Amino acid sequence: MPQRAQEQGDLNQGFNALYNFLNNERFLVISIHVLEQQKDFTIKDRCRFASFLTIAFHSNLVHLTNVLDHLLKDLMDRSSAQPKLLLRGTETVVEKLLTNWVSLCMYGFLRESVGEPLFKLVSAIKQRINLGPVDAISGKALYTLNEDWLLWQITDFKPLKLDVTFQLNTDADVERDHDSSSRFEVEVLDCDTVEQVKEKIFETFYNKYGYSQRWQMEDIDLEVIKKGEHQRLQDIDQTSQELEGGKKKLNTMGHYHIPNEASLVVIRKREKDSKPVIPNSEWADNLCHLISPQSVSVPEPGKKKFKVKEMYLTKLVSSKVALQSFVENLFRSIWSLHNGKPPIAVRHIFDILQEQANNKKITDPDVLHIWKTNSLPLRFWINVIKNPQFVFDIEKTSHLDGCLSVIAQTFMDSFSLSSQQLGKHSPTNKVLYARDVPHYKEEVKGYYRYIADLGSVSEEELENFLTEESQKHQNEFKEKDAMIELGKYIQKYSVQLESGPEGEDLTDMRDAIVQIRKYYDQKSTCSWE
Average pLDDT in the 416-429 region? Predict the structure, then answer.
């Protein structure tokens, strides 16, 4: 026991040396510069280092911000590239660190101001897609924003309202607090397959309980109640229609003659070994739904192609109009000024960029505009718009991803300084928002201009903000473990770090590195660590 106490004391002392090293801004900045000079310190290593650094100082954002500011200024001072190309990637520690820092510091603004418009947009897109027929095999839909996902074949359909009851009660459901005997009214289409109806039923269920509480579709059966009798509904059964070439057509509500306001019951699957019919199963090549095997998916070249493209655009425009208010509410929640106060994190980053532009005597206003765009919308907002599942407890389908990509591209076009020259060969998503983008561009310029006119955020205001943000998320991450991971890089490159940059007095830093190296040697030989 005395030996273990001695070992513990030595380890504590060693970790304190590492802790003090990482909390020393000068040591940390020099270390990052030296590490990035090593050929085997890969882009993956740089991203990992930045991520561990973010976690390690998640509850000390003042220190993390000082390091970020220092590294940003060094990057821009040393850069020999064209100014407009700065901050476009994540090839350096500071660029990845900037992404993480913006994500942390913008979380409050995202939650309080942007979250609701984003959720409403995502919900509206999903509802729009499900408002019309969706081919179960390809995922293409009559109502979409993305040409690649457009179901251009004409399909007749009519809506149905179903009275759905859940009969899933088990002890496990009670423990998970699932109200599994609930009754819902669910809207479907007569051309929906059984699996699609399940999805719509459970979408209603998820709206109450969250997507993470989802049931597995293959564990669930649907039954329709007709004259007191229960009939099981399946995508493929002995009644399925067989087409030429041996393909089978998936059963739909129309196939089963399900009337409006019919009663359906959701039950646990009785046959555990039955195979669900899903688009990516091995059976998919032998199945069809709304797109018949004889239909031509690619139009003929020439004039016909452009006529079909005009037809595409007409269908896409109808969805664009239906979703327009949701798109604009999202965009303006991002670049509008709430109570005349833009986020302090945004002001701070823009202050640094303005200072660097002044130091470099850059007079072209386009350069500063591009720097701001590379630092904020390109680095943060685009990721949020394209990946709402990072923010909400929802599923992002491939089709939803396609629609969000169109909106995200429109968002980025709004920050672009180049004018769009559109013609008959232009992508439909560009044509779709061609009249809107110029107005958005003016709003973005006004947003940037207003923040610049506010002047620099004070040190006191910035520090108060960072301290408050740090306190909101204390004890959410294993900061000590992240520091230990950072220390492994210090240990690995200790020889190079001790040599350090020429002209720097590294006496104190070398002493700290010796202690850190000793700490990891002790950890590797410790009998109980």
Answer: 80
